[in-house]
Specification:
By secondary structure, the protein is of the alpha+beta class. Helices cover 50% and strands 18% of the residues. A four-stranded antiparallel sheet has the order 1-2-4-3.
């Protein structure tokens, strides 16, 4: 990588840092004027919308998820494992599009595959947003929007979450966030409704 490329990357990281700092101060402003519950709700709503957009872009770029069905039968664990691994990769891509790698340390893995669902776990060892909120003096009462982000990604990727929760959280002093996303299988979305049966409005 050339010196110009390194400098450009450093400028990009700095711009992200400044925007996250802005976001933290914006959150603090809403919390001080309207209460922390309102700040948490607005923050989660905004991030879910951004996450939905990111998931849709990843879907357009990558195409449909591999079919986990098997000759009309319910998908077996092998087929589901393959499609869940591709879905895991797409969650990683969503994360990379929303958050610079320099500002977080995250990884995903498929931990469980059954006939009916699969468990994808995202482990977050560093979260720059929490650092910024802490620096803005708003950590107490702050609610992490991670599950809202994952709900947006999942909707944009066209999959259904049957479980979406944090098992541990950096905000609470844990060593890492461990976020559970249980996905209904087969992971391919149902076929769209025929245009003949839809009503235009």
């Amino acid at each position: 990588m050339s010196a110009d490329e390194v400098n450009q990357r450093a400028q990009t990281v700095e711009a992200y840092r400044l925007w996250w700092q802005h976001d933290a101060h914006w959150y603090q402003g809403v919390a001080s004027r309207f209460g922390q519950q309102a700040a948490n709700e607005i923050n989660a709503e905004a991030l879910r919308k951004v996450a939905l957009h990111v998931g849709q872009r990843v879907t357009r770029r990558s195409g449909p998820l591999p079919d986990s069905g098997d000759s009309g039968e319910k998908g077996g664990s092998g087929d589901n494992g393959k499609s869940l691994e591709e879905l895991r990769r797409r969650y990683d891509e969503c994360g990379d599009r929303m958050f610079l790698r320099e500002l977080r340390n995250a990884s995903t893995e498929v931990e469980e595959v059954t006939e009916d669902d699969g468990l994808i776990v995202l482990t977050l060892r560093r979260n720059f947003a929490i650092t910024m909120v802490r620096m803005a003096g708003s950590l107490e009462g702050y609610r992490c929007p991670c599950t809202d982000i994952h709900a947006g990604w999942s909707e944009g990727l066209g999959v259904t979450l049957t479980e979406n929760r944090a098992e541990s959280c950096l905000r609470d002093g844990d060593k890492a966030c461990r976020l559970l996303m249980r996905v209904a299988t087969p992971v391919t979305p149902p076929a769209p409704v025929s245009s003949a049966t839809t009503t235009e409005g």
